[in-house]
What we know:
The chain has one domain (11-131): 2-Layer Sandwich (TATA-Binding Protein). A five-stranded antiparallel β-sheet has the order 1-5-4-3-2. The longest helix has 14 residues, at 20-33. α1 (20-33) crosses α6. It is α+β, with helices and mostly antiparallel strands. It has helices spanning 20-33, 44-50, 66-75, 103-110, 114-117, 123-131; strands at 11-16, 37-43, 58-64, 85-92, 95-101.
Amino acid sequence: MNHHDPLPAEIVTKTVAGSVGECVARLRATLEAKGLIVFAEFDHSGEARADGLELRDTRVVVFGNPRSGTPVMQEVPLAALDLPLKLLIYDDDGATTLAYLRPEALRERYGIPAALAAPLAGIDAIAEAAASA
């Protein structure tokens, strides 16, 4: 699949304002304001450059709240493959794109009970805040 093929239905994408770095900064500020933890940020393009390779600006921010994610993983251990939540921000031919797995897809993939999955839907509002300038 190249980046111009249709995306799987379980992935949400948004074209966002500003550069990848600016979007990541907005995302981090949003997460901090909501009291969420940034567990990791992967700068795939930076690592590629460090190894002499070229890759469009590509970063993944991994975040969450143990109070929301732990009960899910206690009930459905395999959900840990996709938790904590992640947002991908990348340069798509000069436009900054944000992408993530739909919370409903995550719930369906692992059969997570609706009551436990409810907090995972917060990724939609977080993505919307990160997308806005």
